[in-house]
Amino acid sequence: MALSKFLGLFLIHIALLSSSCFAADPFVFYDFEVSYITASPLGVPQQVIAINNKFPGPTINSTTNNNVVINVRNKLDESLLLHWSGIQQRRSSWQDGLPGTNCPIPPKWNWTYQFQVKDQIGSFFYFPSLHFQRAAGGFGGFIINNRDIIPIPFGSPDGDITILIGDWYTRNHTALRKALDAGKDLGMPDGVLINGKGPYQYNDTLVPDGIDYETIDVHPGKTYRLRVHNVGISTSLNFRIQSHNLLLAETEGSYTVQQNYTSLDIHVGQSYSFLLTTDQNASSDYYIVASARFVNESQWKRVTGVAILRYSNSKGKAAGPLPDPPQDEYDKTFSMNQARSIRWNVSASGARPNPQGSFRYGSINVTEIFVLKNKPPVTIDGKRRTTLSGISFVNPATPIRLADQFKVKGVYKLDFPSRPLTGPPKMETSVINGTFRGFMEVILQNNDTKVQTYHLSGYAFFVVGMDYGEWSENSRGTYNKWDGIARSTTQVYPGAWTAILISLDNVGVWNLRTENLDSWYLGQETYIRVVNPEVTNKTELPMPDNVLYCGALSKRQKYAKKSRFYVNGYLRKMAVKTNNG
Ligand SMILES: *[C@@H]1O[C@H](CO)[C@@H](O)[C@H](O)[C@H]1NC(C)=O
Ligand SMILES: *[C@@H]1O[C@H](CO)[C@@H](O)[C@H](O)[C@H]1NC(C)=O
Ligand SMILES: *[C@@H]1O[C@H](CO)[C@@H](O)[C@H](O)[C@H]1NC(C)=O
Ligand SMILES: *[C@@H]1O[C@H](CO)[C@@H](O)[C@H](O)[C@H]1NC(C)=O
Ligand SMILES: *[C@@H]1O[C@H](CO)[C@@H](O)[C@H](O)[C@H]1NC(C)=O
Ligand SMILES: *[C@@H]1O[C@H](CO)[C@@H](O)[C@H](O)[C@H]1NC(C)=O
Ligand SMILES: *[C@@H]1O[C@H](CO)[C@@H](O)[C@H](O)[C@H]1NC(C)=O
Ligand SMILES: *[C@@H]1O[C@H](CO)[C@@H](O)[C@H](O)[C@H]1NC(C)=O
Ligand SMILES: *[C@@H]1O[C@H](CO)[C@@H](O)[C@H](O)[C@H]1NC(C)=O
Ligand SMILES: *[C@@H]1O[C@H](CO)[C@@H](O)[C@H](O)[C@H]1NC(C)=O
Ligand SMILES: *[C@@H]1O[C@H](CO)[C@@H](O)[C@H](O)[C@H]1NC(C)=O
Ligand SMILES: *[C@@H]1O[C@H](CO)[C@@H](O)[C@H](O)[C@H]1NC(C)=O
C-alpha cells in the first residue's frame, strides 16, 4: 500500500514531463512484437499473425482507470494498427487504432499506444484493423477488472479463462483480400478455431488426424469465469459445453441479469462472460462447441470448432455426438428472443459504486435520429462494394481526426444522411455529424440475407429494441426503456432492425462499422464526429506527442522522439520494481 502510494506521487512528478499521463492511476506495460509465424490450425501450414510469437496473442489484464502502455513493434511486411475493440478511449480517439483516426504504423516501426481504461470494467479484445489482417490472427483478449473497492455481482471466480472463437480460412489474408478485390465472395470458411486451434477429432470422417485442439483444464466443484469472444470473419457461432449450463454474467462492459443458457449465439465481434460451475461427475471429458449458425447443417458440419473441457479427476475421453445446437429451423425468432433476454442488471455496480441503472437512459429525450440501412453487395464504378444507407465508405489518406487538428480541408464530408439515400449507391468519405452531449437514436436496418453485427467505438450504447420487418415510428412502442443492455456490438438479423441509443458525451471521431470483416473491407462503415466547440482537455486530450503523420500531412513526420520512449522505459523499470517489492 505504502509503496503504491509512493509510486503514485512519483508518477505525478513524471507526468509533468508527458502531456497525456493520468498520474494518480497505476500503469500497466506491454511490449507487443507483431510478426508472421507458420501454423497449421487446420492441418494445412499457413502464414498467421502472432504477437510475441503467440497465436492468439497475449491477454491484456488491466483494472478500471489503469493507464495502459503498449509498445507495438511492427515486424510485418505491411502497415499495422491495433484496435482495442470496446475500450472506450475516453477523450482520446487518438489511440483508437483505426484508419479514420490514426495513421498506420509502417513496417519495421515502433509505436507506443497509451490510454486510460477510464470508468470501464469487463471483457473485450484487440485485433489488427488494416488490410484484412484479422483473418490471419493478431488478436487477443483484453480484460478490465473491477477496482477492489467495487463489489462484483457474483462470487470471486476460481479461474478466469479467455476463449477466442472464430471462423477460419486456410487461405492467407492476402489471398482473401485479393478475392474480395476481384469482386468474389469468400465462400464457406474451412473451419472454426478455438484459441487458435482446430477441432478435436470427435468424428474420424469430419476431422482429419493430427489436428492440435484446445484443452481447458478445470477442477471439480469450482466456478470459472469464461470470457468468450467471436474474433472471426463473418460467421455467427453457437457456443455450448456438453452437460453444462452457461450462466451469463457480463457482456462488453455491462453486468447482465444472470441467467442460465444451454447455448448462446455469439455473433462476429461480440464478447460474453459466463460463469461455469464444474458440477458434473467427470465420467468423461466434455465437448466445448462453437458451430456455425443459420446455415445448412449438413454442408457446414466440418466448419465446427470443438475443444475439450477436462476435469482434473476425469475418467476418460469425451465421446458420443456433439451437444445439439438449437433446433429452430422452423422458428426464426428463437435467436432474437434469446438476444432480447440479455438484460442489464440495473442494481449491480459497474466501474463506479453507483448502480449501473442509475443512468436512466429511458428518460432522456432523443435529439437526433439516424436510420442506417445496409444492402447486399452492389457494383459501384465497376467494383463490388457494400453500403450503409447507399454510401460505401472510402477511408481518407489523411485520418479525419488529424485533418481536423491541422485544418486540412476536403478530406471528408460531414453529410452522412439521416435516412437511407434512394438514388444510386456511391463511394464517399461521408461522416455523421454528432452533437456533443446529444442523445442519438440509431436504427440499424439489415436488408441483406445474413446476420450483421454493428460496432461503435468510443461508446457503449443501449440496445432498446429489435424485430423483424421494417422499422417504423410505431416500433418505438416496443422499446425497452428500463434494462436494455449497454454494450458496443449488436447483431441485426436479416430482414430485421435493431435500435440503439447513444449518449454522445465522448469527444472524438468514432467508427461505426459492421464487424463482418468482408462487409467492412468493402465499405460498410462510417464515423461519428463529436466535437466540443469549446476546446478543452477536460473533454478531449491533446494530440499525443508521438502522433504519426500521413496523407496530406506526411511531410510533418520526423523520426520518433526519443524522450517519450525514455520516460516509458523508465516507468516500466519502476513498475517492475514495485511489483516485485
Ligand atoms: C490540461 O490543460 C491544462 C491547462 O491548459 C494543463 O495545465 C494540464 O496539464 C492539461 N492536462 C493534460 C492531461 O494534458
Ligand atoms: C490479472 O491481474 C491480477 C493482478 O493484478 C490477477 O489477480 C489476476 O489473476 C489476473 N487475471 C488474469 C486473467 O490473468
Ligand atoms: C522499440 O521496441 C523495442 C523493444 O521494446 C525497444 O527496445 C526500442 O527502444 C523501441 N524503440 C522505440 C523507438 O521506441
Ligand atoms: C499467400 O497465399 C498466396 C495464394 O495462395 C500465395 O501465393 C502466397 O505465397 C501466400 N503467402 C504466404 C506468405 O504464405
Ligand atoms: C461422422 O460424420 C459423418 C458425416 O456427417 C456421419 O455420416 C457419421 O455417422 C459420423 N460418425 C459418427 C461415429 O458419428
Ligand atoms: C444455473 O444452473 C446451475 C446448474 O448448472 C444451478 O446451480 C444454478 O442455480 C442456475 N442458476 C440460475 C440463476 O438459474
Ligand atoms: C456419473 O458417471 C457415471 C459413470 O461413471 C454415469 O453412468 C452417470 O450417468 C453419471 N451421472 C451423471 C449425473 O452425470
Ligand atoms: C442442405 O444441403 C444438402 C446437401 O448439399 C442438400 O441436400 C439439402 O437440400 C440442403 N438443405 C436445404 C434446406 O437447403
Ligand atoms: C444483480 O446484481 C446484484 C448486485 O448488486 C446481485 O446481488 C444480483 O444477484 C444480480 N441479479 C441478477 C438477477 O443477476
Ligand atoms: C423531454 O421532452 C418533453 C416534451 O417534448 C419535455 O416535456 C421534457 O421536459 C423533456 N425532458 C427532458 C429531460 O428534457
Ligand atoms: C454539425 O452539427 C452542429 C450542431 O451540433 C452544427 O452547428 C453544424 O452546423 C453541423 N455541421 C454541418 C456541416 O452540418
Ligand atoms: C429489402 O428491402 C426491400 C425494399 O424495402 C424489401 O422489399 C425487402 O423485403 C427487404 N429485404 C430484406 C431481407 O430485408
Automatic annotation (TrEMBL):
Keywords: Cell membrane, Copper, Glycoprotein, GPI-anchor, Lipoprotein, Membrane, Metal-binding, Signal. InterPro entries: Cu-oxidase-like_N, Cu-oxidase_2nd, Cu-oxidase_C, Cu-oxidase_fam, Cupredoxin, CuRO_1_AAO-like. GO terms for cellular component: plasma membrane; side of membrane. Gene3D superfamilies: Cupredoxins - blue copper proteins. One of its GO terms (molecular function) is oxidoreductase activity. Its cofactor is Cu cation. CDD domains: CuRO_1_AAO_like_1. Residues 1-23 form the signal peptide. This is Monocopper oxidase-like protein SKU5.
